[in-house]
Specification:
By secondary structure, the protein is of the alpha/beta class. It is built from 18 helices and 16 strands. Helices cover 49% and strands 14% of the residues. The strands form five sheets. A five-stranded parallel sheet has the order 2-1-3-4-5, with helices on both faces. It has a five-stranded parallel sheet with strand order 7-10-13-6-14. It has a two-stranded antiparallel sheet with strand order 8-9. The protein starts with 5 loop residues before the first strand and ends with a helix. Bound molecules: adenosine-5'-triphosphate and magnesium ion (MG).
Length: 451
């Protein structure tokens, strides 16, 4: 279904406001109206809108004042100013103050609708870029890639060499080794760091939608394409596009991707003219792409095009020197997140961790430590907190009761987190889902330091 955009019309002339509202509704928008600037702002703050169309001349606050307030509250929401013929200076002033554009009355309906559509697209784009940047800034607020083993530092050295170039980097490694983390670091260390970092998981998107996800589509290009959509290539312009799980891409799309990479031109689905974008591509796969090439499920030419700069991240079991430093790092991270005090980890616990196989690599270790931080009572994490196979525990701490109570706590934690996620953080709803009283839930949340 197409998204329904909400448009707020601030206009004191009732007949005009109603006419505009009808026009928008006929186009599938939701229209809200308001007769004064003051009321418009409070409606906007209470009910939200994707775009505001405001008259300049209003009884109380004028359009310019309304614009200033809106821009301060929601800088990304596009505002279009309607002005009377002859007030062109004010219109220019409005644009300077952040209005998306202005319309001089009387205006042509189709011109107005085109302008609104364009403004909505720009608002969405700006929002998307901001989200990406914020996401990235969070990742960067703490040291990113932890590890001191030779295998990891060698990989980091290669990453630093690749970063300043535009070469396509192919990151391989088992699940949870840090491929996405490396891709983000690559972007951050590159001259494109102020541009967007856009990730696409090729395995998570249904096959027949991936093409339009990557390249975008024109309105009406296929059933369900009710509006034009920008592809990730376009969104990543001047930045880095991370194609995750590239080994899962269908052969036909691989051909189109190769053409895009070679010509640096992309074509929206149903679009007439290809256009150029400036994108640096990093790709990742936990599948053996060489084998896929031999088996015929991955194009050889695309493989070579991607593999300009291969970067292999070794599995954790091949760099056990990293286990302690990673464990300590994750303890600090989760203790802070869960607002628990300082923790240390005992040598026995490190020894137990070092003996594990870590099929899920760093992600598995991170999860293991998170659980330990949740259930540990005191300042030191011992092997009994790790939820590892009992053979790793010493006799005093590995009693059955203790093991059972740890497992129960961990399971409760997971259930509570799941219910909170499902209820969007609404605790009363979460308690219903869990079949416990609100009070019990609050006690558990506090006990486990969730949220
Ligand atoms: N060296 C590291 N230092 C700090 N954190 C790491 C390191 N390696 C991995 N991580 C963390 O482990 C988790 C898994 O990493 P990431 O998602 O990058 O792995 P991946 O290789 O992309 O996994 P998958 O193949 O399953 O997609 C992330 O939370 C990441 O931040
Ligand atoms: Mg990944």
């Amino acid at each position: 279904m197409a998204e329904k955009f909400r448009i707020l019309i601030i206009e004191d002339k009732k007949s005009m406001a109603e006419m505009l509202a009808r026009t928008f509704e006929a186009e599938g928008y939701i229209a809200l109206t308001s007769g004064t600037g003051e009321d418009g702002i409070s409606k906007f703050l209470r009910d939200g809108a994707d775009l505001v169309l405001t008259d300049l001349k209003l009884p109380g606050m004028n359009g310019l004042q309304v614009l200033r307030v809106l821009k301060e509250k929601r800088p990304l929401t596009p505002v279009i100013m309607m002005t009377a013929f002859g007030s062109i200076e004010t219109a220019v002033e409005a644009v300077k103050a952040g209005a998306y554009d202005f319309l001089t009355k009387p205006f042509d309906t189709s011109h107005m609708l085109a302008l609104v559509e364009k403004a909505l697209e720009s608002g969405k784009l700006a929002a998307e870029n901001l989200v990406l940047k914020e996401e990235f800034a969070r990742e960067l607020s703490f040291p990113m890639i932890i590890g001191k083993s030779k295998a990891l530092t060698d990989a980091l050295e290669l990453l630093k060499k690749a970063a300043p170039t535009r070469a396509t980097v192919l990151i391989t490694g088992e699940s949870g080794t840090g491929k996405e983390l490396f891709a983000k670091a690559l972007h951050h260390l590159s001259p494109r760091k102020d541009g967007p970092f856009v990730a696409v998981n090729c395995a998570a998107i249904p096959k027949d939608l991936l093409e339009s996800e990557l390249f975008g589509h024109e309105k009406g290009s296929f059933t369900g394409a009710e509006a034009r959509r920008l592809g990730k290539f376009e969104l990543a312009d001047k930045g880095t596009l991370f194609l995750d799980e590239i080994g899962d891409m269908a052969l036909a799309l691989q051909a189109k991707l190769l053409r895009a990479l070679q010509g640096e031109m992309i074509e929206r689905v149903g679009g007439a003219e290809p256009f150029s974008v400036d994108v640096r591509v990093a790709a990742a796969s936990n599948r053996d792409l060489e084998k896929a090439v031999r088996e015929g499920s991955f194009r050889e030419d695309l493989y070579y095009r991607l593999n300009v700069f291969p970067l292999r991240i070794p599995p954790l079991r091949d760099r056990r020197d990293d286990i302690r430093i990673l464990a300590e790092y994750f303890i600090g991270k989760y203790a802070a997140e869960l607002k628990k005090g300082l923790f240390t980890i005992s040598d026995e616990a490190i020894e137990a961790l070092s003996g594990m196989e870590w099929k899920g690599n760093v992600r598995e270790l991170a999860n293991c430590i998170e659980r330990a931080v949740i259930i540990a009572d005191g300042g030191e994490i011992g092997p009994e907190c790790l939820g590892l196979a009992p053979k790793f525990m010493d006799e005093s701490s590995g009693s059955l009761q203790r093991t059972a109570s740890i497992a129960a706590k961990a399971a409760e934690m997971e259930a509570i987190k799941g219910a909170l996620a499902a209820s969007g953080g609404n605790k009363s709803r979460a308690s219903e889902l869990l079949g416990v009283s609100y009070k019990t839930l609050l006690t558990k949340i506090k006990e486990y330091g969730i949220g």
